[in-house]
Amino acid sequence: MSETVRRVAGWGVAALALLVIVVGLLPGEADADPDQREQYLSERIACPWCDGQSLAESDSQVARDLVVIMREKIDAGWTDGEIYDFFASSYGEQVVLEPPLTGWGVALWAVPAAALLTGGWVIWKRQSR
Amino acid sequence: MIATIGLLSILLAVAASGVLIVRAWVESRAPEPKASAIRLPVAMLLLGSLLAFAALELGILTDDFTLEYVADNSSTTTPLIFKLAGAWAALEGSIVLWGAVLAALVYFVARRVTDGDRLGLTALSIIGVVSLFWFGLMATVANPFAVCTELAGRACAESSWLPFVSSVAPADGVGANPLLQNHILMAVHPPMLYVGYVGFTAPFAFAIAALIRGEQGSVWLERTRRWSVISWAFLGFGILLGAWWSYEVLGWGGYWAWDPVENAALLPWLAATAFIHSAVVQRRRGMLQAWNLILIIATFSLTILGTFLTRSGTIISVHSFTQSGVGPILLGFLMVVVIGSLLLFAWRSHLVSSAPRLDSLASREGLFLLNNLILTVFALAVLLGTLYPIVLEAMGRARVSVGTPYYNRVTIPIAFVLLLAMGVGAVTPYRFARRDVVWPRIAAPLVIGLVAGAVTVALGVSSVPVVVVIILGTFVVATIGKEMLRQSGKLDGSRVGAVGRVLRRDPGYWGGQMAHVGVALLAVGIAASSGLAVREQVRIPAGEAAAVDSYCISYEAPTSRVEPNRSVTGAILTLRSADCSSELATLEPVFNRYTRPPAVATPAVRTGITEDVFVALATVPGDDVVLDVMIFPLMWVLWAGGLIAVGGGMWAVYARKRTRERVTAYV
Questions:
Q1: CB nearest B357 (choices: A24, A58, A126)
Q2: A-contacting residues of B 604-633, CB under 8 Å?
Q3: B 245-304 residues with CB < 8 A to A
Q4: Is residue A64 over pLDDT 60?
Q5: Within a domain: residue B663?
Q6: Does B292 lie in the same domain as B229?
Q7: How big, in percent rounded to 5, are the helix, strand and coil portions of chain B?
């Protein structure tokens, strides 16, 4: 097999594979599916009395009851933010596992991002070519 | 008697540490340093630490409940293996094991110190300081040999530091922590972690010694390379065993929760991973001298931080077993280490750093730098996520949580970049990599990765992160495999023999590549098992069956039995294929109740080539049973990947010891 044929075959296979991947992963119906929202949110809300485990992780009765309550809110059309607020006001802020992007919470994202940019800049500057 | 021997052994180790600090320091500054000067304190340190450990084990094995530690952590009915492991099941005992490992490290380091070795003697003096701290802790606030002077039921209410006061003993001890006597892995997981944690003391001490002495060059790195890699491998192995235990023993169906104590073990591992990579750049190219000092100081400090987080009771977690007075002392030691090291660094680093510049970012060292940047940012994010709730609470604000969602967001893109760099880095030359050199080496593996991704999508997987990780993971394995074929193809003889010779020819490089293959598999296993997991809860009446995912589970009968140390309540289940015809396995998830709470729900797991079926009890089995059933695809790939990564590290050390010559893949 000549070099050219191999090269063309390689690009062909790569293009085909990429096509399959892109078509296959094109977003289907949005995640408005209540089951998916229940799973998503129960991974992000902690069971208040389970040493920091999420509702999805905990196998306690409390966690199960809270998932039922959460599901009622989902079915009643509450947004994610409203559900977070409900749980935070009922059981304390620590039950929301997704740190809020306000106040000091910004530092959780800003500091690593700043480190990445600074480090990248330092490395870039050290090149001699 | 045991208490007296134990305490005297600890005091011997304290004295030996003190003598070691002084003698090693004085000798390192003598006109003609003699290695023989430190032999006695090293031998006494080893003797004291081993005697203390032996005394503790003896106390546990002979059920000597006059010892508070034994009464609180063991009982006559505790099985032998968990009695032995009981020596490191709680704070005081775990420090004894810690001390023994540290003393062994001192012994091995001292064996290689010869006459005139000023750097080695200075380093031993530094290790002596660390040793003095730990044995001092044992001799004071965390004395494992405190004797019980007043009882409260089975537990010990009051105890005395003095070993010869009149003591009382409960008829039987409280027994081991249920979480720790549930699985054999719990006996092995802590010692592996400790070897990892303690091992970093050696490179740290040599780095500090090099700073103090103002020694240029990579001698400290070369001499401690073995310790860095061994510690890295053991720490990784310890983390892996902990994850495995969590999966096999705790019924919540996971292996990693970004729990602060898990993070505490991951942080030094991340810093050490960065260190191992940047150390290669210094040894090969003379760059990054100052940065390597910072990284090893960070790694060592993070091991102390980890111990503090685990043992101070600052955080609530399944891991924080003790609340005791050691918290402030550990915090103080951490401050001394961090501030002292950084001051020393600020004062002396101009003596040791001379940085040849990077020729080009497009080079092996450029990718090493990328690796360092990403790993540092990763560690920083994990550190912030771990400390944020603690700091906020200390400031008197409302308690908040930083949970899995935050870590997932940070980890997933980082994993992508690291995997890509791993694949490309394996075949990129030093100094400057020309496109026409690198491209032919990665083109075919890229195509193979894309095909693997396409097959995954065709099989119905729609999770973007999972598909990307499979593409990149396959790319890494294919690149390294292709490189192996290229190198071994040039050699005569059978292909298998040639592969063996290539692996031995450059163990540093190939040990690293083995670790990369392991990490790539680990990433695939993590992505598939978490991204494609199925979780369901089913209620099944006795004698009936229920369909779960592509399986049929029938509840045969409840079961219960009483063992010496626990009572077991469970359900006998039969796992069958979807149409309930062919039988796949019998599963028995149980609740274990020990002499002390909590009860532990132990799942039953059936491991298959494509996926694991994980079943845990949600209710006590009776006329019916409620089961948490989870399907985790490619779970075994995760464990296998972890083991291969650890094996790669060990290969780099072990094989290098035998073949000292240095051959490198690309020059």
A1: A126
A2: 616, 618, 628
A3: 251-254, 257, 259
A4: yes
A5: no
A6: yes
A7: 60, 15, 25
Joined tokens for residue B55: 């005394």
Is B30 found in the same domain as B163? yes
The interface residues of chain B toward chain A in range 453-492, judged by CB-CB distance below 8 A, are 453-454, 457-458, 462, 464, 467, 471
Angle at B375 between CA B374 and CA B381, to 5 degrees: 90
A79-116 pLDDT, tens digit per residue, is: 888 888 888 888 887 788 877 777 777 888 899 999 99
- In angstroms and rounded to an integer, the radius of gyration of the C-alpha atoms of chain A is 23
For residue B460, what are its two tokens? Answer: 């119905």
Sign of CA dihedral B436, B440, B443, B445: negative
Among the partner-chain residues A98, A107, A126, the one whose CB lies closest to the CB of B358 is A126
Closest CA to B71 of B172, B196, B184, B207: B172
Provide ipTM, 2 decimals.
Answer: 0.83
State both tokens at B454.
Answer: 């396409």
- The beta-carbon neighbor of A57 closest among B252, B357, B464 is B252
As a whole number of angstroms, the longest Cα–Cα distance in chain A is 71
**Nearest residue of chain A to residue B366 (CA atoms):** A123
- Name the minimum distance, in Å, from the CA of B109 to any CA of chain A: 35
Would B288 be classed as within a structural domain?
Answer: yes
Do residues B596 and B472 share a domain?
A: no
When CB atoms are compared, the residue of B388, B405, B462 closest to A44 is B405
Same domain (yes/no): B457, B503:
yes
| Token code pair at residue B451 | 């095909």
Same structural domain, B109 and B235: no
In Å, how far are A121, B361, B601 from B431, measured between CA atoms?
20, 9, 55
B311 and B91 in contact (C-beta within 8 Å)? Answer: yes
List the beta bridge partners of residue B566: B563, B594
Among residues B564, B559, B570, the alpha carbon closest in space to that of B600 is found at B570
- Report the candidate in B98, B122, B71, B96 with the shortest Cα–Cα distance to residue B10: B96
- pLDDT for the residue B354: 65
Distance from CA of A77 to the nearest CA of B (A): 23
B200/B339 same-domain check = yes
Q: What is the largest CA-CA distance in chain B?
A: 85
Chain B interface disruption, residue of A1, A102, A124, A126, most B CBs within 10 A: A126
The size of the A-B interface in CB pairs under 8 A is 148
List, in order, residues 6 or more apart from A9 with CB less than 8 Å away.
Answer: none
Q: In this predicted structure, what is the pLDDT of residue B403?
A: 81
Q: Which residue has the tokens 């979807």?
A: B578
B634: phi > 0 → left, psi -120 to 50 → alpha, else beta; which?
Answer: left
* B601 interfaces chain A, CB cutoff of 8 Å: yes
**One domain for residues B524 and B589:** no
C-alpha to C-alpha distance for B331 and B209, rounded to whole angstroms = 23
Per the structure, the count of domains in chain B is 4
Whole-angstrom distance, CA of residue B413 vs CA of residue B422: 14
Q: What is the pLDDT of residue B556?
A: 93
Q: What is the pTM (predicted TM-score) of this model?
A: 0.91
Of the candidates A66, A32, A28, A30, the one whose C-alpha atom is nearest the C-alpha of residue A47 is: A66
Domain C-terminal end among B148, B176, B204: B176
Q: What domains appear along chain A, each with residue ranges and CATH number?
A: 34-123 (1.10.8.640)
Q: Which whole number is the average pLDDT over A7-33?
A: 81
Peptide bond into B598 cis (omega under 30): yes
Low-confidence ranges of chain B (pLDDT < 70): 312-324, 354-355, 656-667
Give the dihedral sign, CA B69/B196/B253/B605: negative
Print the domain residue range for B335.
190-350+364-385
Examine the domain organization and report whether B62 and B134 are in the same domain: yes
Comparing alpha-carbon positions, the chain B residue that sits nearest to A53 is B257
* Residue B183 domain-assigned (yes or no): no
Specify if B171 maps to a domain.
yes
